[in-house]
Each structure stands twice: as structure tokens, then as C-alpha cells.
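--- STAGE predict ---
source: upstream dedup step, 1 unique chain passed
mode: sequence only
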Amino acid sequence: MPWLQAISAEAFKEHGLRRSFGFDYIPHLVVIGKDGRIAANLNFYKKEQLQQVLKKLN
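--- STAGE serialize ---
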């Protein structure tokens, strides 16, 4: 499955990606739905949940 990845030197600053996407650790998975909204925030170390999330979106 191809996907887009993002990195930001300012991710953990107050105004960075951390606040926008609501995560406190890396790596972190954010699933964006077809409507452009966040469909899921997943702890990377529980990534087995990703398949369940993707099934719900289809």
C-alpha cells in the first residue's frame, strides 16, 4: 500500500504537527479519509489495528 509520509523539524514545538494531529510520540500513524479529515490516529506500535481501520473506511 503506497502512502504519503511527512517529516517536520518543528513537529514537537507548540505549533507543530504534534498539536495539529494530536500525538505525543513517534513513529505515529495518521490515516486521512477520502474527505480529507483525520479518520484515525494510531500508535505505530499497535499498527495491527491499521487493517481494521482501513476496512471500516472502505
